[in-house]
Amino acid sequence: PGGNLEPIAGVDITTYARIVKAIAPLNYDQSLLPGIAASHGIDAASWQAAHDGWNARIQGEPGLAKAFSDVYRSV
Q: Has this prediction a pTM greater than 0.90?
């Protein structure tokens, strides 16, 4: 559906969206992301790699940005 949807460090786009959306009601406090990722079974190093990787992919690929937006709204 546009862009590279291969998981990064074992984190697929749906899981990534679910985790980053979880901080929306928490004033978007980025410091909470590793703990939320851990609750999904993702260790800190894998989360950091996935977070950085997905951010870079989404910023660099308009098709992937739309796919992420669609997934984000649906989770």
A: yes
